[in-house]
C-alpha cells in the first residue's frame, strides 16, 4: 500500500506475469526466482476442474528449469494435470510484519513466486530420478539410508513437472513506506521479522534400542 | 503415503470437501478449522479468469463464519471476485518433517484448510469495520495508535469476504507410519519440528528521537 517506484525491474517474460499491483516489488531474474522456490518445500498448485478453481498445497522441488511435485497414482489432481491442463504454481514465504505510522501503510515482508504452465507426467525413469533428488534435497544422504521403494510403492507414485517459462517473483523486505507528513509525527514504526525455525530432532518412540541418529539428521538445516 | 485408517472423522459438509487422499487426516469440525485459519495471516486464493487458474497469496482474517481479504480498489483479482466467481481459499502451515525408515514413507507434518465459495464485496461500513478488526488482530491496539485512513485511502481499499460453508481441514502431526518389516529394521526414524518464530522488533531508522516502542509491539506474539 505504497506509491514509491524506485528500482525498475527487469522485463517480465509475458504480459501475464507482469506485476500490475505493487509492480516495484517485481523480480524477473532467474537467480531470485530459483532462490525463493528452493527456500521452501511446500508450494500451492492452482488448477481448474469443471470451471471450479482448486488450490492444493503439496511438496515441491526444482531441478534446473523445472519444478516437480508428486503424489498418489490415484490422485484426481495428478490425473487431471497429466492431461496438460493449465496450472498456476506458487511459493510464498512470510518474512515479517511492518508497522507503519499510518493504518493504511501497515504491511508484511514476504517473498513469493508465481509460475504459469502445464503439468507433464514424468516417465518411469525420470520419476525415479526426480524422487531421489527430492529425498536427498530434504536431507543429503537420506536416499541411500532408507529402505528403497518396492515395485508396488513405485507404482503407487506419480511425479508431475512443469517448465519454469512464465514466472515472476515478488519480494518485499523493506521498512514502512510512509507519507512525508506521517514521518514527521511522533508515532513509532518498525518491523518484526518472522522465520521458520527448526526444533531438535525427536526420535520415533518405536525406535529399536542402540540405533544412532544418522548424520543427515544431526546436520539437518531447513532451508539451506 | 500411508495406509492406516484409524480415526473416523466427522462427515464433510459437501462431496467436494470430502478428502479422498489420506482421508484419515481429514477434520471437519469448526474449532479445528477456525484455529488453523486464525494461526496465520497469509492465505492463498485460487480463482479462474479466462479459463486460466490464478493463485494469489494475500493477507486474510476471519470474523465469525467469514474469511476476509483486502486489496487495492484497482486490483483485477478483486474486481473479478466481487462479481461472485468461484473461489478456493486455502491456508497451510508447515509444522515439520518426518523421516521414515522407508523412502516411500517420508512425510511432512502440516495443518491446512481448504474452503470453496464465492467472494462478496463488503459495503463501505462493513469494509471499515472489517479492516479495523484486521489491524487489531495483527496487534491489539494498533488501530487506535496509528494515523487513521484518509477518505482517499479508504477509497483506494476494497474488502472481499467469503462465507465458510464448504470447508475441510487436514492435519498431519504424527510420527512415521511404517510397514511392520521396516519397524523391525535397524534404521533410525523420527521427526524435526518447524515453527515460525519472531525476531525482536526493529525500529524504523527514520524514527524521530524519543519515541517509545508501543506496548502492542513490545507484547507482540505472532500466532496467538
From TrEMBL, chains A, B:
Fetch the InterPro entries from UniProt. Answer: Pyridox_Oxase-rel (IPR024747), Split_barrel_FMN-bd (IPR012349)
Q: What is the protein name given in its UniProt record?
A: Pyridoxamine 5'-phosphate oxidase family protein
* Source superkingdom: Bacteria
SUPFAM superfamilies given in the database record:
FMN-binding split barrel (SSF50475)
Per the record, the coiled-coil ranges are: none
Amino acid at each position: 500500500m505504497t506509491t514509491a517506484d524506485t528500482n525498475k525491474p527487469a522485463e517480465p517474460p509475458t504480459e501475464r506475469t507482469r506485476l500490475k499491483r505493487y509492480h516495484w516489488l517485481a523480480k524477473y531474474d532467474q537467480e531470485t526466482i530459483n532462490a525463493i522456490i528452493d527456500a521452501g518445500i511446500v508450494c500451492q498448485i492452482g488448477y481448474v476442474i469443471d470451471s471450479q478453481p482448486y488450490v492444493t498445497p503439496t511438496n515441491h522441488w526444482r531441478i534446473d528449469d523445472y519444478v516437480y511435485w508428486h503424489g498418489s497414482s490415484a490422485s484426481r489432481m495428478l490425473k487431471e494435470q497429466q492431461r496438460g491442463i493449465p496450472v498456476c504454481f506458487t511459493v510464498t514465504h512470510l518474512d515479517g510484519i511492518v508497522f507503519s505510522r499510518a493504518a493504511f501503510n501497515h504491511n508484511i515482508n514476504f517473498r513469493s513466486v508465481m509460475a504459469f504452465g502445464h503439468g507433464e507426467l514424468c516417465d518411469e525413469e525420470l520419476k525415479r530420478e526426480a524422487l531421489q533428488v527430492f529425498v536427498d534435497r530434504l536431507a543429503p544422504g537420506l536416499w541411500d539410508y532408507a529402505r528403497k521403494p518396492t515395485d508396488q510403492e513405485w507404482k503407487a507414485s506419480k511425479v508431475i513437472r512443469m517448465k519454469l517459462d512464465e514466472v515472476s517473483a515478488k519480494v518485499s523486505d523493506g521498512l514502512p513506506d510512509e507519507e512525508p507528513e506521517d514521518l514527521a509525527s511522533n508515532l513509532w514504526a518498525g518491523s518484526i521479522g518472522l522465520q521458520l525455525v527448526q526444533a531438535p530432532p525427536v526420535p520415533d518412540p518405536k525406535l529399536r534400542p542402540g540405533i544412532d541418529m544418522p548424520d543427515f539428521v544431526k546436520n539437518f538445516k531447513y532451508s539451506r
